[in-house]
Amino acid sequence: MTTALPPRAGRRCHNALNPLHSTLYFSPDLDREFAALGFTDPSAMRLAARSAALGAVGAGTVAAAFYNYNHELLARHLPGVWDTASPAEVLDARLRTVDATLRRLLGDEAVASPEMAEAAELALRATEACSRHARPLYSAHADLPVPEEPHLAYWYAATLLREHRGDGHLSALLSAGLDPVEALASHTATGKGMAPRWVLGTRGWGRADWEAATERLRGRGLLDADGELTDSGTALRAELEEHTDRLDSAPYEHLGAAGVERLTELGRGFLFAAAGAGAFPADLVGKG
């Protein structure tokens, strides 16, 4: 029998693991690997990298699975990207990118360390309790083979846990009545989401879409005149995370309190090292 988890322990663990998955999308190694496949557009590269596990799908499927991307952006690239490279070729290039990226950010010693092997074992154990139903991105990735090398297995397990929580989070957003841009704008207003210029540059929305969404949030009493969260807005965002925690509790309850604490400790160490090596743009997060 495992010890009950402390409040938000699963969320803290997710927050330590999830960003390591995301290093992929900011890596120059991705541009190199995907250029070798014939990709020239950065948006196409990143959309293909995240959606390839779903197969050679079109914009509608990806809009549903990603939630906060503009369908018009997706339709410019999907399903056309699969004429450049097949999903299998993209997945292989993605894994080569992860290998190069983690070796560059963490160093070969950390990649080959006992701590990395331990983190991979713990994260994979947590994924044993993930559920497939109504979780398209998680379920698609769960069909992929587990990489043999520990640092790749750790990244893969972090990806499964990321998409498992993310799929559940979409249910919470729908329950809260937040459309894609409202979800993005209210998250940015917490100070923990992507800065507006990064949202607009990667999700395909325009400034007019952003302003319209913030006006709707003001109309619901969730943002004030300065674009800051009101008390009601803060409460809504807190409930969103609590709702997501409930939907995402199984992997961490399965791992147990001691395992979650250790995985969080190891994940934070790898994340801090990657961030210190320049894994993310300095202006990625914030309200400005």
Write a compact overview of the structure shown.
Helices cover 69% and strands 0% of the residues. By secondary structure, it is an all-alpha fold.
Keywords:
288 residues; single chain; mainly alpha
Distance between the termini: 47 Å
Quaternary state reads single chain
Number of domains: 1
SSE sequence, one letter per element:
HHHHHHHHHHHHHHHHH
| Number of distinct beta strands | 0
Number of helices: 17
Describe this structure in words.
With 288 residues, this protein is an all-alpha fold. The chain has one domain (9-276). It is 69% helix and 0% strand. It has 17 helices and no strands. It has helices spanning 9-22, 28-37, 42-51, 59-66, 71-77, 81-84, 87-106, 108-111, 114-127, 136-142, 150-176, 180-189, 196-203, 207-219, 231-247, 250-255, 257-276. Helix 9 packs across helix 11 (150-176). The longest helix is centred in the middle third of the chain and has 27 residues, at 150-176. The mean pLDDT is 97. InterPro entries: HTH_67.
